[in-house]
Amino acid sequence: MKKGILILLAVSVLVSCVFAACSNKDEVNEPSTEGLANADVEYGFEDVAVTDESGKEVTDADGNVVTTNVAVEYRKDKNGKTYAVVMGNDGKAVTDKNGNEVTLKVNEEDNKPTQTQNTVNPTAGNNTTTKAPKPTGTTKKDVPVTASPSTTHFEGNENVPKTSNSGTPVNFSVEDQAIIKSMLEVPYLYLASYENSDGVPLEIATHTAVWMAEHEGSIRNVYASSPVVLNLFKFYGQTVVNFKTQCNEYAQKSGAPIEYIKKDDTFVISNFTSKVQNVSITGIEDLGDNNFYKVTADVSGCDKKKVVAIVQKNRLDTSLGFSIKALKWS
């Protein structure tokens, strides 16, 4: 859905935002007796207008309001209405100078939250604008390199394309290709294929969680649950349903060195996994709305020879810059 940008939050509150010092208290740590829908926190993205320290909306050279994406956790109030809590890179809720969680108002249409009235100061936690890297290389010399406006603009309904879809050949910079290559080389990612509508297979999510911890530069063995779940959301661009409640079962099946400790609401990662598969990108196609791209690559080092991935560019300002929306290994 197209998201409108209006003012709701007082910037004077957001300027002094700091990360919360404790784990999210509203997380559900056990499967609901009403079913699995409530077994995991649901994350999403919200568009907000960027403001300066005086509370004025930042505009570009053409006078358009600058917006940015922030990661949020969706919750319900006592009346059952959905609202969003802004999350920092550490997986904890961003708080104001008084220690209150920074929240955003959302609309509910068909039980799906969409942002309507929000502003944010870029100094607050994870809230920074995205910038496409300067093109420095290409996959093919006879097609143009994607330009910044075409890789940072999002509007319309988000219908993720299928891996069977085809589009217009394009180039990505050397930096972007390196990012995608590293994401497709997450150890044992080749264990499962999926279309976006299927949801993320838990067997590959267990290995992704371990890789993301390493990617973030962590050296600990024990991790609070929120950063781990949020990192998975960043990688896949969607919530990995029931990850906490079924992590141990699928980690044992997939051989991933991760375990969820329910009584502490933590994950234990015993070691980082060595790379298995190697990928070499052979083609990139622009699939149209909302920066969806089809990436085709040759594969070696495992029992797969080719992978087709649907990726989305710059949906959230992270060191990844992409999310993997679908995979087909063959």
Give the topology.
Blueprint: H1 11-14, E1 18-19, E2 42-50, E3 67-76, E4 82-86, E5 94-95, E6 103-109, E7 112-117, E8 119-120, H2 148-152, E9 168-169, H3 174-184, H4 202-215, E10 222-224, H5 225-236, H6 243-254, E11 258-261, E12 266-269, E13 278-286, E14 292-300, E15 306-313, E16 322-329
Parallel strand pairs: 2-8
Antiparallel strand pairs: 1-5, 2-3, 3-4, 4-6, 6-7, 9-13, 10-12, 11-12, 13-14, 14-15, 15-16
Characterization of this structure:
The chain is an alpha+beta fold and 330 residues long. Helices cover 18% and strands 27% of the residues. It has six helices and 16 strands. It has helices spanning 11-14, 148-152, 174-184, 202-215, 225-236, 243-254, and strands spanning 18-19, 42-50, 67-76, 82-86, 94-95, 103-109, 112-117, 119-120, 168-169, 222-224, 258-261, 266-269, 278-286, 292-300, 306-313, 322-329. The chain is globular. Mean pLDDT is 74; it is low at 1-39, 110-143 and 145-157.
Quick overview:
The protein is α+β, with helices and mostly antiparallel strands. It is built from 6 helices and 16 strands.
